[in-house]
Amino acid sequence: TLDGVKYRLGSADSPEGGKRRKDVKSIEYADFQDVDHAKATGLLNKGEQDKAGDAFIAVTKSTIYAALRERSYLDAADAFIAAKQPDKALAALKELEAKAPRSVHLPRAVELAFAIEKGRGNRAAAQEAVDKLKKNAKDWGIEADVLAATGQASLHREDKKLAESAKELERIWGSVLTLSATSDEDEKEQYARVGEQLALDYGLGGQAEKAFAVYKKLMYESLGAPQARAHLAYAQAMSTSKDLDNLRTAFDHALIALVMPEGDTQVRTKAKSLARTILAAFDKAAEADPKLAGEVAEYRKYLNAL
Q1: Model confidence over 129-151: pLDDT tens digits?
Q2: Of all helices (H) and strands (E), which one includes residue 261?
Q3: What three-state secondary structure class fits 214?
Q4: Cα–Cα distance between 195 and 202 in angstroms, integer?
Q5: Inter-CA distances, 141 with 71, 134, 159, 179, Å
Q6: Of 141, 143, 247, 277, which is the most exposed, with the fewest CB atoms less than 10 Å away?
Q7: In terms of Cα–Cα distance, which of 247, 230, 229 is closest to 238?
């Protein structure tokens, strides 16, 4: 629960231990041997989201596992959202909170409710969900604090208040939301996504230098795939300049994004296209200044070799 984790090492007769929830990074549950949940998952995999949602709700009544019961409410909500039945999704989320008021899944449940209400234009209900995350962040932990900030930022962004959106994200990025030597891939991805959005808010809000600082930080963290995205984003931002030194920087980072093994196909495709666009700008500059011809030829050789 949100209060803590209790466990026994070994047999059911061994002494019970416990930790505060905030001292536990993550919990790995063994696979639950639950036939009904397996059937519900099967329906979901077949694309029968509505039936799957109902089946997951049935699991909450039948399973003997408390952890699976709570998770099944979220599974049901996700299925109903996919089936475009937001009211049934909200009902599942409300029932989770009513039946398990100290569930570790509450932050995620409120986030889903926020997404549903925001998606259908119910601004008051969306703000109410964000306020709930803010109010409970101290009790619910870092996850709630992060979701409150990203949710509020998205509402500010919707109102074209980019400075306010950036303030929400800069409050958590690098402080509440951090990286460590033990950060897993999901944590790295979340850190990167929030950083990328912060950089976009800075850039679109006219704070280019702050945006560049965020991209540089992302480029040189050990993030894997997000690093390639950061190099590409930095190159895209720099490529809008007419200054040749900035274009050189943009070209270099586009090539880095192109060759990084962690980058996916989409990043590599965009990076190569951007490099060609920058090269075309250099071709035009070389027409006015023939001394650039040798440099442009060198850039073309690099790009054609990739």
Answers
A1: 999 999 999 999 999 999 999 99
A2: none
A3: helix
A4: 10
A5: 18, 10, 28, 17
A6: 277
A7: 247
H or E element in which residue 65 lies: none
Contacts 24+ apart (CB under 8 A), 297-303: 299/251, 302/255, 303/255, 303/272, 303/275, 303/276, 303/279
Rounded CA separation 255/245 (Å):
16
CB contact at 8 A, 14 and 25: no
Number of H helices, E strands in the chain: 14, 2
Q: 166-174 — which CB contacts under 8 Å span 24+ positions?
A: 166/198, 166/201, 166/202, 166/205, 166/207, 166/210, 169/194, 169/197, 169/198, 169/201, 170/198, 172/145, 172/146, 173/198, 173/214, 174/217
The pTM assigned to this predicted structure is 0.83
Q: pLDDT tens, 114-134? A: 999 999 999 999 999 999 999
Segments making up each domain of the chain, as ranges: 31-100, 105-214, 224-306
Is residue 153 within 8 Å of 165, Cβ to Cβ? Answer: yes
